[in-house]
Amino acid sequence: MNDKTDRRTALIALALVLCMAATRSDHFAGELHLPDASAAVFFLAGVYLRPMWIAAALLVEAALIDYAAIAFGGVSSFCISPAYGFLLPAYGALWLAGRWYAVRHRFAFSTLLPLAASVVIGGLVSELFSSGGFYFFSGRFEPNLAELGARIARDFPSSLATLAFYVAVAAIVHVAFGAVRLSGARDRRALGGN
Fold first, then answer.
1. What number of CA atoms fall less than 13 Å from residue 48's CA on the CB side?
2. Distance separating the N- and C-terminal Cα atoms of the chain
3. Cα–Cα distance for residue pair 121/138, rounded to 1 Å
4. In 153-162, which positions are buried (b, 16+ CB within 10 angstroms) versus exposed (e)?
């Protein structure tokens, strides 16, 4: 890795950390009117950031934000149960979906199909772990598969829309930076530079 790559990685990691911090907590997200970007943060970390320790650091950040929101922000602890551990495979599925897409990414329209597939499949697997884990292991429900299916059918479109929104924003930013980089490279070639 070179300094430019290290700086790019650090900037992307910082942007993802700040995005989660601004949207995960009801205190901040309510004021900004932004939906929780946590799922997208893990997906995008998989796309842009290779080191697995970054995914682990994002998990720690998510847990710390949840703790602070409950302990100091007056947020209900309803979601904290033995099922909370299912967020690990839920977010891991999104990170892996991002990694899968990263290998297939090209700066071309043809990359949109694998991007969409990875967002939908990663989002669905994540929903199955998080909602299914909470439904079966939180102790708050009398679980049955029919009701779980109905809950996922009701909740997944909204969570997928939020995930897709943030990934679309990231894609637009990615394309804008890519276009600037290509333009700069053409200008350097036209001027006889490298």
1. 23
2. 20
3. 24
4. eeebeebbeb
- The pTM score is 0.87
Q: Output the furthest CA–CA distance in the chain (Å, rounded).
A: 71
Distance (Å, rounded) from C-alpha 91 to C-alpha 168? 19
Identify the CA nearest to 36 among candidates 48, 28, 24.
24
Query: What are the tokens at 11?
Result: 């900037």
Over the chain (194 residues), what is each successive 10-residue block's mean pLDDT? Answer: 78 94 69 83 96 92 90 79 91 97 90 96 96 85 86 93 96 84 60 58
Instruction: Decide: 82 and 138 in contact? Cβ < 8 Å.
Output: yes
Q: Dihedrals φ, ψ of 144, to 5°?
A: -150, 150
Cα–Cα distance for residue pair 194/191, rounded to 1 Å:
9
Which DSSP category does 192 fall into? T
Residue among 63, 15, 26, 13 at smallest CA distance from 169: 15
CB atoms within 10 A of CB 30: 9
Query: Mind listing the pLDDT tens digit for each residue in 81-135?
Result: 888 899 999 999 999 999 999 999 888 888 999 999 999 999 999 999 999 988 8
- Confidence at residue 184, expressed as pLDDT on a 0 to 100 scale: 57
Residue closest to 126 by CA, chosen among 164, 84, 89, 151: 89
